[in-house]
């Protein structure tokens, strides 16, 4: 007896490896997906009766490949399909296939499948949608819901992305070390973008988009199992776990953003935090720092503080300094300024961000931070001006509401004085 | 006689469980554990973090630290320790100490514990 929930989970889990092996075989994405789909239908028919096979991935590859052959034979000779009852998981052919497909093949196959989705001509949202369709096996309707767009628009987006990917030729040979590292870097970035797509949702959208974060974590863990000694893969998974651990505390009941120092830390997910902290500890031992590790280490430093006032800001300042060197960006400097304001006061932080204003003129957070720093110094006019610009740049109602609450506090302070 | 019951399953599948499915499994297991505890037969229970959180220490004169779970098939699981450590580094050091004390070859897999119920008081 095998229940439906188990089968669904097993099929989802097997998908990246099985589709990538079928792709390697058919050299055609649509054919590989179709063969996998056929194999899944057969699994749904036979597994509840016969119990699950010992190696579901090998079973699905074997059955998918045969189903495709049958389909072709059917077209040419109208021959009857063989009874799938005859396909048992104990067949020698299947065992032989498992042996041929060793871990290295699986590893490069799955990486290749993910890498196909990262085609540089595809804008990030299309890369993510394609990965969710091909690698994760989400339906177009599910992806459309998570992206908050109509189903036909998403269908078009995925079809167009697939056409572009099909035209590109990613070689099937096992990649060399440099190529493998490049592919891994592109895939890590795509997974990170997928996570952010879910993480940057506003409170109303959060329940719809949380699955994107969970899927990104699942893909990250999959990649980490295939490449267990890659510190940046550890860093990315750690970063996602540590961010996702705070999901329940990020919005209040009214749907407003709760900033890190105001969050109810008892609502953070303890097991995810310890897993993230452990992973970043593992990564750091390699002494090959990278941007994901630095960001994860910053998130871990926040997570270690039981209360906001226990935060080790000196450590965070150091880590942002490392991140600035690894990946120079005005946004990183802006974040570092927040740590500096805690260490040396708001004036030092304002001096630090002053040169960034030109480059961050269209960035909501820049004016949010600037306004908050002026407010801390009791400088109302510049605070008000910065908050005004932040509201104009807000992308969601929750962002705008958050800044308005600052303006209300300024107003309150003024009235009390008057 | 005390028996250790070691739980093996496909991690890919368990990682693909929905939260509801996970909660349902934990609740079902909890019911069995409660029964065993009531009979005074239940010792400590632990759920381990995924193998992606594992580190393996290969014993030897120069202990080797390898990312990932223990993957050899030539050696068998002979026992385990649960030790409170402040960090992964401390856990690795502790595993090395234990390894030195064993003297022989083999490995220790260091895997953080996600959920721990200490020994039931009646045991």
UniProtKB/TrEMBL annotation, chain A:
The record's section on Gene3D superfamilies has: 1.10.1740.10, Winged helix-like DNA-binding domain superfamily/Winged helix DNA-binding domain
Q: What is this protein called?
A: RNA polymerase sigma-70 factor (ECF subfamily)
**Gene Ontology BP annotations:** DNA-templated transcription initiation
PANTHER family named among the record's database cross-references: BLL0085 PROTEIN, BLL6612 PROTEIN-RELATED
Q: Which NCBIfam families match?
A: sigma70-ECF
Q: Which InterPro entries match?
A: DUF6596, RNA_pol_sigma-70_dom, RNA_pol_sigma70_r2, RNA_pol_sigma70_r4_t2, RNA_pol_sigma_r2, RNA_pol_sigma_r3/r4-like, WH-like_DNA-bd_sf
User: What is the protein's species of origin?
Assistant: Hansschlegelia beijingensis
Domain RNA polymerase sigma-70 region residue range list? 14-77
Q: Which GO terms describe its molecular function?
A: DNA binding; sigma factor activity
Boundaries of every RNA polymerase sigma factor 70 region 4 type domain copy:
114-164
UniProtKB/TrEMBL annotation, chain B:
The residue ranges crossing the membrane are none
Q: Which Pfam families match?
A: YCII
What organism is this sequence from?
Answer: Hansschlegelia beijingensis
Taxonomically, the superkingdom here is Bacteria
Question: PANTHER family, alphabetically?
Answer: BLL7171 PROTEIN (PTHR35174:SF3), BLL7171 PROTEIN-RELATED (PTHR35174)
Per the similarity annotation, which family is this? Belongs to the YciI family.
YCII-related domain ranges (all copies): 1-117
Protein name as annotated: YCII-related domain-containing protein
- Note the InterPro entries from the entry: Dimeric_a/b-barrel (IPR011008), YCII (IPR005545)
């Amino acid at each position: 007896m095998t229940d439906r929930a188990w089968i669904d989970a097993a099929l989802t889990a097997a998908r990246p490896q099985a589709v990538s092996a079928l792709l390697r075989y058919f050299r055609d994405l649509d054919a590989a997906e179709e063969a996998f789909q056929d194999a899944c239908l057969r699994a749904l028919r036979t597994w509840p009766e016969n119990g699950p096979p010992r190696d579901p991935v090998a079973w699905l590859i074997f059955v998918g490949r045969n189903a495709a052959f049958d389909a072709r034979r059917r077209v040419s000779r109208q021959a009857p399909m063989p009874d799938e009852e005859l396909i048992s998981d104990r067949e020698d052919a299947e065992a032989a296939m498992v042996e041929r497909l060793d871990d290295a093949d699986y590893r490069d196959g799955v990486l290749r499948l993910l890498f196909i989705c990262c085609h540089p001509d595809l804008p990030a949202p299309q890369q993510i949608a394609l990965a969710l369709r091909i690698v994760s096996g989400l339906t177009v309707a599910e992806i459309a819901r998570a992206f908050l767009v109509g189903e036909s628009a998403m269908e078009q987006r995925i079809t167009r992305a697939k056409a572009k990917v099909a035209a590109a030729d990613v070689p099937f040979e096992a990649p060399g070390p440099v190529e493998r590292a490049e592919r891994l870097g592109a895939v890590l970035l795509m997974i990170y973008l997928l996570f952010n797509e879910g993480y940057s949702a506003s409170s109303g959208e959060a329940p719809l988009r949380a699955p994107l974060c969970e899927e990104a974590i699942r893909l990250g863990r999959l990649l980490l199992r295939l490449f267990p000694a890659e510190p940046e893969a550890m860093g990315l998974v750690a970063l996602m776990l540590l961010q996702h651990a705070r999901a329940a505390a990020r919005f209040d009941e009214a749907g407003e953003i709760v900033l890190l120092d105001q969050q109810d830390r008892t609502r953070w997910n303890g097991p995810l935090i310890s897993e993230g902290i452990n992973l970043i500890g593992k990564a750091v031992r390699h002494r090959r720092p990278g941007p994901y590790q630095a960001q994860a280490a910053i998130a871990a430093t926040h997570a270690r503080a039981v209360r906001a006032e226990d935060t080790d800001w000196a450590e965070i300042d150091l880590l942002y300094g490392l991140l600035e060197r690894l990946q120079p960006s005005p946004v990183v400097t802006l974040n570092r300024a927040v740590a500096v304001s805690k260490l040396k006061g708001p004036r030092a932080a304002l001096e630090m961000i002053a040169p960034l204003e030109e480059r961050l003129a269209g960035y909501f957070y820049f004016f949010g931070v600037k306004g908050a720093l002026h407010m801390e110094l009791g400088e109302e006019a510049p605070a008000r001006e910065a908050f005004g610009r932040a509201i104009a740049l807000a992308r969601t109602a929750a962002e705008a509401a958050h800044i308005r609450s600052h303006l209300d506090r300024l107003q309150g302070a003024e009235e009390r004085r008057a | 006689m005390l028996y250790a019951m070691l739980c093996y399953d496909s991690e890919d599948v368990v990682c693909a469980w929905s939260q509801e499915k996970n909660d349902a499994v934990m609740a079902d297991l909890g019911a069995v554990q409660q029964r065993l505890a009531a009979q005074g037969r239940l010792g400590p229970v632990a759920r381990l973090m995924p193998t992606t959180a594992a580190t393996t220490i290969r014993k030897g004169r120069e202990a080797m630290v390898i990312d990932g779970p223990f993957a050899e098939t030539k050696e068998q699981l002979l026992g385990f320790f649960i030790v409170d450590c402040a960090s992964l580094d401390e856990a690795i050091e502790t595993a090395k100490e234990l390894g030195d004390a064993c003297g022989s070859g083999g490995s220790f897999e260091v895997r953080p514990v996600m959920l721990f119920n200490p020994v039931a008081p009646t045991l």
